[in-house]
Design brief:
alpha/beta, Rossmann fold, 2 domains, seven-stranded parallel β-sheet, six-stranded parallel β-sheet, 15 helices, 13 strands, 47% helix
Length: 376
């Protein structure tokens, strides 16, 4: 009997890396004739359009300003959906936290594509007494769910494999994500010649503490005298409180001419921004952001990433970018030696073209699904 896969992903209100992983995996399953469906709650029309060949079970809810309440809604609605649909499938493939809470009592073997462990989310809660208590409850429940119901786990890199092992005492499979090399390497139709005096720095990602846009603003503040043409593009949208902090900093430091907030950008516009940029600055903390440096390198853009970025070991090992904590010095070096770093980025393009393909990622995932389905 052919294998059937149910993909479970929490609310898809942004089109980030985890959402793209789901889309690319579903495209591959459709292309190879593997029966599958997606179970989610809210979903952007843009994502739904990209999943035109995938049946989607939706349980939408009205979002509130209390993200913790929405988090609980996601848990409940996904669990209800799994209980309703799971028996029709051979494998359940859960993705972002709290999707793993949807699977008990599981009637089918489960593969967890763990993009990042739950503590990334739970540790962002305010440290009030009720929240600390809730964290402890979630941690205990999460470990029991993994122990009892998760048959196989997958992570994208060695860093997250170590983090997963330390949390759950389970060795996960390591399968690198793919990159849309052909898409991002192609020069967009509306590409333009920038002013020779401009030095364009791009920072891509959800505007929030983990993506650390404030650090990029501080770099611009410190460098605007030495690099008069420096321009920072903050591509993404996010938390209202954090956005207000960023904009207040821009106002207080007189950076209005140096900083552009784009809001949400789709992939076509992101490609345009990459091809206009001189360097990607990626000072993120230990959360998400795996795809962005490789997408930028595909467009020939030099990259500066934090030591905490979970794929920084790949960038360092292959010598295709700067891994550092001193972003001001790194930006100055790229500005002064741009030709050298453009050549480094070309090496990065070759590495990505030859090694990081979505079909490779998806084929390896299917191997894990087959193994899990047959061993139950």
């Amino acid at each position: 009997m052919a294998m059937r896969v149910l993909i479970v992903q929490p609310s898809m209100n942004i089109y980030g890396g985890a959402e793209l992983v789901v889309v690319k995996l579903a495209e591959y399953l459709a292309k190879t004739g593997i029966e599958h469906a997606l179970l989610t709650t809210n979903i952007l029309p843009e994502i739904e359009n990209d999943l035109c060949c995938t049946p989607i079970f939706k349980s939408p809810y009205k979002r509130s300003k209390n993200w913790q309440l929405d988090f609980l809604k996601d848990m409940w609605l996904l669990n209800k959906g799994v209980r309703r649909h799971a028996k029709r499938y051979d494998v359940i493939n859960v993705h972002n936290f709290p999707a793993e809470f949807s699977i008990f009592p599981a009637s089918r073997p489960v593969v967890w594509m763990c993009h990042e462990p739950p503590d990334v989310y739970l540790n962002s809660w305010e440290h009030t007494v009720p929240n600390v208590f809730a964290q402890k409850v979630f941690y205990a429940a999460d470990r029991q769910i993994v122990k009892r119901y998760i048959k196989q786990a997958v992570v994208a890199d060695k860093y997250n494999a170590g983090r997963f092992m330390a949390t759950y005492s389970v060795n996960p499979h390591v399968i690198h994500y793919g990159i849309d090399y052909d898409f991002f390497s192609a020069k967009p139709d509306d590409f333009y010649i920038k002013r020779s005096s401009d030095f364009i720095v791009i920072h891509v990602g959800h505007l929030g503490e983990f993506k650390n846009q404030m650090e990029s603003l501080r770099c611009v503040k410190l460098l605007k005298k030495d690099i008069p043409g420096i321009r920072l593009v903050l591509a993404g949208y996010g938390e209202d409180t954090y956005i207000r902090q960023l904009k207040r900093f821009v106002q207080d430091e007189g950076l209005q001419e140096q900083v552009l907030f784009t809001g949400h950008v789709n992939r076509e516009r992101l490609r345009v921004f990459f091809h206009r940029a001189d360097v990607l600055l990626h000072p993120i903390r230990e959360q998400g952001g795996w795809l962005t440096p490789f997408e930028a390198l595909s467009a020939g853009v030099p990259v500066i990433v934090s030591k905490d970025m979970t794929a920084s070991d790949i960038i360092s090992k292959e010598g295709i970018g700067i891994v550092t904590g001193d972003y001001v010095a790194a930006l100055s070096d790229v500005y002064q030696n741009l030709k050298k770093y453009k050549e480094t980025a070309l090496s990065g393009r070759l590495f990505i073209r030859n090694n990081l393909r979505w079909d490779n990622f998806s084929a390896e995932m299917v191997k894990v699904f087959n193994n899990t389905a047959h061993t139950g």
